Amino acid sequence: MTLDKRAGQRFLPYGANYLDWSDMAELREVIDHRVLFRYQTEQESMASRLERTAAERLGARHALAVHNGTEALRLCLISTRPSVGDLVHIPAVTFVAVAGAVLSCGLIPVLVDVDESLALDTGLLPPDARRVITAHMEGTVAPVPAHVPYLIEDCAQSLGARFPDGRQVGTAGYAGTFSFHHNKVLTSGEGGLVVTGDPAAWARMRCYHDHGSARVPGSYPTWNEDAHFGENLVTSEGVAAVQCQQFRHLDEVLAGLERMYALAVDRLPDRPDLSVLPRSAGDAKVSVRMRWESRELRDAAVAALTARGIANWTLNKYLLPEHPVLTGRRSPYADGFPWSHAPAGPLALSADGFARTRDLLDRTLCVPLSPELPEPAQIEAAKAVQQALETV
Ligand SMILES: *Cc1c(COP(=O)(O)O)cnc(C)c1O
User: Fold this and answer.
1) Is the CB of 186 under 6 A from ligand 1?
2) Which of 36, 45, 284, 385 has the fewest beta carbons closer than 10 A?
3) In the chain, what are the domain boundaries?
4) Number of Cβ within a 10 Å radius of residue 124
């Protein structure tokens, strides 16, 4: 069985939804205004509008837009005033950007094993952990550790997900980061955002992201006597306009995912060698995550879906202990920075050398959902998934 052509084309990984010329009012506004640089104007810039919208929607006090989610992580880390070589505990299963952000700030990642749900196992954290990045992967809501001075939530894959008490992910600790890369809940191709409830942290981030300056919008930057260096991570008005347009559709996206999730889970074949990984009510339902009895079955399911043109992915690529960027401790710096500052001994916390995690990843498969499809097309797509998996 194959999907009809139109449904097949649109049955894509989530991302790039709702992009339509009839709906780009913010982008037209920016072009009409003829200002592409956010600090060119004293009025509320499009970037500021995005930050205000995001902060309100997420229930955060402050937001700051940057170019991508990796920069957002770097900015959070730098704003904690670390020393070179300080340790940062990160999940052993996440996108390599998390490790890259840590290392590029001169800090050393410690890989913390994950629990059954593939989220950082907070029980493995040492009591004196100061900097922890947890990642809410695939629209899930990871448990967050208490009493960590600098808890950074990487919400790149989980914009709009909620904790059981209703708070949005990204607001539980020191700061939260988001990405608007092509393959995320909302997209502007590239884009990133930080939220924080801490006004001093926000001020440090804002300063660093604009050359260490204390710029007043509408004017050239100024530097205080005690200024430190910074970089240029300032977003641009055109990108912010697309992000504002996307944000208008966030609730629709989440509702469309929710609807298709129910349809797809309902139609999964009832077989003893296949189980659906549970999702909580507050998850952003970006995919159906399933677990097979063996790697062979999982791989057969990948082949069956792929042969029918149905998007799917596995999570093995996220196993950081085996990632080439980490295994060799190589560096673009001639002196090996910052690995040259790493303590001796392994930089991993796992009871079994990640054996259980490796096995879980080998048997896990995700099928992304398409929020913008009308319900009949979602049903067709869900049936196509069902039929493909029945042949395994
Ligand atoms: C995409 C992603 C990032 C990086 O975001 P970019 O905007 O691509 O830099 C970081 N962490 C996770 C978990 C991601 O999925």
Assistant:
1) no
2) 36
3) 14-249+324-346, 250-318+354-389
4) 19
pLDDT band at 205 (very low <50, low <70, confident <90, very high): very high
Atom of ligand 1 nearest to the CA of 181: 7
Instruction: Say if residues 292 and 365 touch (Cβ distance below 8 Å).
Output: yes
- Phi, psi angles (nearest 5°) of residue 320: -65, -35
Phi then psi for 258, rounded to 5 degrees? Answer: -60, -45
11-55 confidence digits (pLDDT tens) = 445 566 788 899 999 999 999 999 999 999 999 999 999 999 999
Residue 317 bears catalytic tag: no
192 CA closest ligand 1 atom index: 7
Q: How far apart are the first and last CA of the chain?
A: 14
pLDDT (0 to 100) of residue 12: 47
Angle (deg, nearest 10), helices 25-33 and 237-248: 160
pLDDT at 9 over 60: no
The CATH architecture assigned to 14-249+324-346 reads 3-Layer(aba) Sandwich (3.40)
Q: How many helices (H) and strands (E) does the chain have?
A: 12, 11
Q: What is the mean pLDDT of the chain?
A: 94
Mean pLDDT score, 108-127: 97
- Whether the CB of 178 sits within 6 Å of ligand 1: no
Helices (H), 63-198: 69-79, 97-104
What is the topology classification, in CATH, of domain 250-318+354-389?
A: Aspartate Aminotransferase, domain 1 (3.90.1150)
- In the predicted structure, residue 10 carries a pLDDT above the cut 60: no
Q: Is the pLDDT of residue 110 over 60?
A: yes
Is the CB–ligand 1 distance for residue 11 below 6 Å? no
Catalytic residue among 184, 285, 317, 383: 184
Dist CA 214 CA 203 (whole Å): 9
Q: Residue 184 is encoded by which pair of tokens?
A: 């995320």
Q: What is the mean pLDDT of residues 89-113?
A: 98
Using the mean position of ligand 1's atoms as its centre, give its distance from the Cα of residue 97 in Å.
6
Please give the model's pTM, rounded to 2 decimal places: 0.96
Q: What are the two backbone dihedrals, phi and then psi, of residue 245, each rounded to the nearest 5 degrees?
A: -60, -45
